[in-house]
Please model this.
Amino acid sequence: MRSVPTLTARTLADVLELVHAGPVGPSHGGHEGHGDGVADDGVSGKLRAALDDAARRAGTVGGWTADDPLRLSKGPVTWLLRCPRRALAGGDAAANDDMVAGLAVDAAAKLATLAPRHPVTVEAVVGYLAASGDTTVGDHLADLGAAAGPLLADIEARVQCLVAAWPAIDPVWWPRVEEPVRARLAGGAVVVSGRLDLLLGGTPTDRPAVVVEVKGGRWHDGMRADGHLYALLVTLRDGRPPAAIVTVVADGTTQVEPVRPAVLESAADRVEQALAVAAPIAAGEPAAARPGPHCTHCPVRPACEVGRDWRPAEVDPAGGRARHVVSGP
Amino acid sequence: MTDPVGAADRLHDAVSGAIDDILAAATAPPGPVFVGWAAAGDAAACPAAYRAQGEDGWGFPGWSPTRAAGAIARAALDLHLDDQRSGAYRMPDPLEAVRAWMRGATSVGARGVAGWVGDLRAERDTATLAAAAAASSRWLAGFVRVLGWPLPAGLALLNVTRDDGLGVAARWWPRKGSPVSVGCGADARIGRMRGAGGHTLVVHRPAAGDDREVHGRASFEAAAGALVHRVAPAAVVVTAGDTGERARVEVDGDMLAAGGGMIVEVVRQRALAVDRGHDPADATPSARCRWCERRDTCLPGRDWLAGAGRWRGGLPVVGPG
Model:
């Protein structure tokens, strides 16, 4: 499998240029070429076989069937691994300023892709989201009323930071925003799905796929897992791995990650681990609670003893290292 | 299917007769009844909830980016293909194909999706146009990806709206002046429609939330297609853009009868709704209860939500308290 050289691709524009650079030639600095797509090398078949096997094993414990499947996406996978009890929290999280800013930045990237000749303003972003059926941002700003000023300024700054770095994307890249992708495993007893912020190239175009994730907050390493899962799902669906995952963050960070086999294997491992955690829970065993910083905003905290007892990090005056505290008996 | 025209005729007689009987027995006229897949799926899933929708729920709710996606995508692909009739087909760039069609949709107030887009353009509603372009280019990309390029030989798009607002609606009426009409929602056919049969209907779903509906959808569209085109299809191909899967369902007499039964059931429920809206007696709980407007008052629905419905996506849900 071939992939994008790590060091030369700094931005989304770099990646698009590199993956379309064509076969290897001296003018490309000796890097591998990518113009005719990324070879599969049987990776997708192996991954599917391994995941199918894991899904069947978990399904025999969890009791899922094609009529009543286990549905996994990035959220449940993340929480099953981080805190299984949190993975069972129902309902949608209440809107807050950070979430709203993230949604706005995400929408700004989509708008910049879809209507590049029009200025991407906060007003346009709110209108686009509402037209797409998501009124979270508009409702939150309306609820804040006159107090929305600082948040609006923050959103505006983040949006402009993102838009300034956003390239004009040639339509031959087949830009698809909110691309749905889904893998049915074990005959449909397990379904893993995702909705990509932006997918470029890939089947049936002659260009390798590039998965683009947009994040509204600050870069942290945990963001990579979402892109890995999406790359895995695209590989399973299209039979060809993407060339790269590009995570564009509103703080100005652009993370370019070539899709090596290890990336896909790591994503598949996470899904397998999530299946292994989910199966006994579905069979009736209690879900373990693993306290951490996520407890602060956890919707099931009132009913979770260890979550209630968890306290944010304290700084050890002697060593200066942060440590987390679980109080109580 | 050895006699596709005869099969369509028999279906016509059976469905028309059943609809006549229902309308004759109704205590009052149910008003105009349009039967498409959405109504058939709703009525089959929970008759009580379907009846409770009322006129607002039964009627066309108006265009939105999501609801317009297929119509715009088909029109854009049709225009793209039409522009290249004389030469070799070039694969469309979905977003550009959609934009090109939208640029030509300038008929303000025209019928159908072209009129809606024309209105948006006149109002300079860039946000909604962008959302519509997103949904329809996604639809078009999935359609081409799943079916392959070049498109299958003999493929012709169905339910296409031209940029002048004129469209070819695939509709069937049991008889002249009937308040009931049936729409076939197939997006394309492969092969010519002729007496000997053999054509295949194609139904594209950009994202298939529930794979269990494939057979029901195929049955409904096969029956609706047979009624509209007066010849039964040999098969229905139901595609899913999100998985890339194509399910080919061969059409036989039982399948047509099942699809015809779904059509009749919609009319039966609409006739019943004149006197009887939501009734727990035939409420059929399912995951749909989570979004049902009656979920707080429907006892079977509440029981389901408190029991099996507490499970979501294969795992139990833990409440906050």
